[in-house]
Task: structure prediction
Amino acid sequence: MQGNVKLLQLDRGYGFIACADGDDVFFHHSAVPSHGFRKLAVGQAVEFELAGGADKSAKGARARTVEPSPPVDEPSSPP
Result:
């Protein structure tokens, strides 16, 4: 799935992702590989998987394996 970082609480170790369908998805810093959590920024595009089964929170959707989306190549201007 894809979305944009909506809120980051760096000091508390969590954030929320805004999805295109209007839903917000919670994520914990442990869902971001390496030390990437501190490199995320509000508004940044990310790709993620929704947790299911025992990992699904009663409070709502929870993301796992959150990663920044690859940059979009901008078309080069003609010479």
